[in-house]
Amino acid sequence: MTADPPPPSRHLRIFGIRNCDTMKKACTWLSEHGVAFDFVDYRRQGISADQIAEWSRRSDWKLLLNTRGTTWRKLAEEQRCNVDEDQALRLMAAYPSLIKRPVIDCGDRLLIGFDAQSYAREFLEPTDNE
Q: Which residues are catalytic?
């Protein structure tokens, strides 16, 4: 018995930082499952404040802000206290490593972070359009 062929591949843009372990997991998962993507390293290529604001409109800014990394811990206490959306967007524009990784633009929505189950639902399960 042979396995069913994978569903048609979508071409995505995945944003992050190349040497991030979570990025490596996400890119490996996508490649192993035949999902084509362009990788944008926003540490090297930069990321605009407009792009970050657009992501915030499409998702919760709290999901985008990485408060678990070393960049966050290195910020001054005043910068980390009582962060609202405007402050978070300014911080992420100034310090792109504060953006949780990866950010995958799926067209109609964003996937933020790596979660194999979410990826399988998004990329492997047939949609109503197929």
A: 20
Per DSSP, the chain holds a count of helices (H) and strands (E) of 7, 4
Q: Which long-range contacts (CB under 8 A, 24 or more apart) does 112-121 make?
A: 112/59, 112/63, 112/64, 113/22, 113/63, 114/22, 114/23, 114/25, 114/26, 114/29, 116/29, 119/26, 119/29, 119/30, 119/33, 120/33
- Crossing angle of helices 49-58/85-94, nearest 10°? 140
- Measured from the Cβ of residue 51, the count of other Cβ atoms closer than 10 Å reads 18
State residue 8's pLDDT score.
Answer: 45
Q: Domain of 39: which CATH number?
A: 3.40.30.10
- pTM tops 0.85, yes or no: no
The one-letter code for the residue type at 61 is W
What pLDDT digit, counting tens, does each position of 48-80 carry? 999 999 999 999 999 999 999 999 999 999 999
Query: Is the predicted pLDDT of residue 97 greater than 50, yes or no?
Result: yes
Domain count, the chain: 1
